[in-house]
Amino acid sequence: MTESTEPIKAVPVRHPGRWVATAVILLLVAMFINMAATNPNFAWDVVWEFLFNSQIIKGVWATIWITIVAMIVGVGLGVLFAVMRLSPNPVLSNVAMAYIWFFRGTPVLVQLIFWFNLAALVPMLSIGIPFGPTFASWDTNDVITPFMAALLGLGLNEGAYMAEIARAGIQSVDEGQSEASSALGMSRAQTMRRIVLPQAMRVIIPPTGNEVISMLKTTSLVSVVALPELLYNTQQIYARTYQTIPLLIVASIWYLILTSVLTVGQFYVERHFGRGSSSHVQQTFLQRLRRNMFRFHQPPPPPPTTILDPNSGVR
User: Fold this and answer.
1) d(CA 77, CA 63)
2) How many CB atoms are located within 10 Å of the residue 154 CB?
3) Neighbours of 60 (CB within 10 A)
4) Nearest Cα to 223, choosing from 201, 212, 208, 238?
5) Which of 39, 63, 121, 169 is geometrically suited to a Cys-Cys bond with 200, CB 3.0 to 4.6 A?
6) pLDDT digits over 33-43, tens only?
7) In this structure, are residues 177 and 194 in contact, taking their beta carbons and an 8 Å threshold?
8) Mind listing the domains of the chain with CATH numbers?
9) What are 124's strand-pairing partners?
10) Residue-wise DSSP of 40-88
């Protein structure tokens, strides 16, 4: 008895939908490029003229500075109120809940305007004994400058969101870690600082990176309190030149550059803190591009071959 085995002819799965989607996207991109190149209202010469303008560059540095300081305040407050939120002390827990509820429930623009106009509510800020003598006092307008109003509005609002992010990271650490540290005689503060937070960073870092990028763009709101950041300086220029669209394109280009840099930094920070985990290590954009190119040009694998046992009796 003779049996013949023929290799299976494997046919790769076709994906016509991908080609259709690619064609549609390329068509839309071509239409946009054509519009941008032929529409004189874009005024690209004005864009290149003001792209590196000294006033624009000053606004870029101010935007970066506000982002850094506001995030430092937000992260510090977030960790503090996250620990308070998880505290067995009901007073601390309820205070943290009230803080998070209030600052997450009011728009950040409203908070910025409120802090900037605080002098209308409290004309003088003073230090002293409650219901007693005053040691020192200052005019509120001298204390609540545009920068201070921006710092309070952005930092306090960010602290509420970071508190929930930090709380989720802390709760992701197994409770056995805290129990083991308590058995070793470590205090609650030592356990949080040395055991829990280092392990929680793997969960905290990704959303924190997103918050930094969001904060960078949210700084544009402080233009309403006359803080000379990127958008405010852009508005000052097009108020003189009447070139609104080209100047807004300039601001958009700088925001895209800054967010792209932060995105790359976020990727490598996440990759660093993700080492040692069971999840797949993320690849860089160039690595993914190289892999996809090789996959595209790679020929289909050969069909499987059948190896017959000479002792099986099959001829």
Assistant:
1) 21
2) 26
3) 18
4) 238
5) 169
6) 999 888 998 99
7) no
8) 65-126+136-227 (1.10.3720.10)
9) 139
10) GGG-HHHHHHHTT-HHHHHHHHHHHHHHHHHHHHHHHHHHHHHHHHT-S
